[in-house]
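Pasting as-is:
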Amino acid sequence: MTAIADASIRPGPQPRPAGPPSPAPEPFQELLRRVKAAGLVDPRPGYYTVKIAFNLVLLAAGWAALALVGNSWWVLAFAAYLGFAYTQTGFIGHDIGHRQVTRSRRAQDLLGLLHGNLLMGFSYGWWVGHHNKHHSNPNHLEKDSDITRRRAIFIPEQGPLRRGRAKQFIVRHQHVLFYPLLVTEGIGLRTESVKALLRRLPRLTRTEATLIGVHLTGYFGAVFYLLPVGKGIAFILTMNLLFGLYIGSVFAPNHKGMPIQLPGEDWDWLTRQVVTSRNIRSSYLTDFLYGGLNYQIEHHLFPAMPRKCLRRARPLTIAYCKEIGMPYHEVGVFRSYAEVVGHLYRTTKTYQRNLAAARDA
């Protein structure tokens, strides 16, 4: 395994150095054996039945309240509430896509289309393919789909690739703009969904397009039936921008500011998933608000593990990483965001210094 680059460029825990071949089992297989022995990888249909039913009640309550309040600026409060409820729907869609809810392909497609396309207006099929690329190569400079589509840079060498004044402006101020720009995350997901359908990428293209059409018709129809145009537009913007900020803020601390895998580097599965991920120290409230993604290390190691089992897998993973000398990075909520902003700041400042030095040479 190639050593990680300088910590000033890619801060975070370093992977264990490569050693001579060992007759012991491949490291991840031993951890997987322990987790399976604890019964933590089996689907939890009962848990998800309750979870899905409760979430549908949350959504229905938001729309019912909007209908009752009607033509009032109080509808913006319900827009914020629905932004929260739609993010929770997204978390369930995420679990469905990882086969945490059911191992049946047919049931998985049905639940995924319900949550992704019909309830949220996203392409479930596109998202699964996109997200699987990220899981296979988290924080890989060229293979991680969550890095390649970002406007920010994560190592200074990416700076020259952001061509144009607008992109360079974002790079120069990315540590300030990163979180405000997350409000556009929902818009970006919908845009990418439409592009994928136009390219006929998802497996269920016609069905997905039809369900997204039903969603958009029902969504805009309900909003503008219940509200005048001005309040309707304000409602839509508030709901979708807060949805983007919420879901983006949950995903941002997972890997940003952690070590980057460069092209040509060869890391084993355990190293690739653990050292590129950041856990957030948790309570049951944090588990709910983050949709279980606060256990990012465990989720990346065992993506099909039901959300409710991640908390129990955490001590097993910590103990095993300590046993083999693998770094395990876990911080508090506020520290996680500070680390992301600090990394973006150091990266852009290094890029600007390199640029200035090249001009002066």
